[in-house]
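Sample entry follows:

_____
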Amino acid sequence: MKEIQDGITRLLADAVEAEIESESCPAWLLRPGRIECLAMWETVSAIYAALTGLVLPERAPSRERRRLDVLLTYENGDQQILEVDEKQHFTGARALTLEHYPAGVKLGFDASQWLARSRALAGREPGGGFGRPKPPLFPSDGGRHRQRAFRDALADLLPPVHGWLPTIRISDAEVAAITSASDAVSSLRALLHERGVPASYLVFG
């Protein structure tokens, strides 16, 4: 839900020294194919095959579009994605993607926690329109869940190979804890530092 994302976005300006851009996406993540995936192409292809049983085309369909929750650009030019993950991001499909991550991949969140929650919620994904097919890449039932999981994997795996800092993920439960804290900005700042944001990029009042 957008209000969960907005709850974090409102606090960011007081927590980090960065240009904050919402609902945007770097060009290499809009329609990633072999060229955009660089050294991660084989991993990305294997994840897609595990999700669909299909072969990932080397060029993404032209209709593919996406927006990320937040892009951070720090004063020294470093850039980083921040995503807020609600319950629909924790699914059996998401567990499958996380199980295929290479050892040692740089992440801005605890993948074991995301994997554990995704496994716990596997089989409880909402049906109907929430799991509708999303052709051409995800043409089967449950396609929306698979598409979301695949896009999350791309947002995790591709930034480091493009020179970006690892993607930060904050769960809905963590957002609730932050926004209900007596000092919400300090709570967010502490979490960002824990997720790997250098202290020099943080605002300390």
Observations:
- The mean pLDDT is 95.
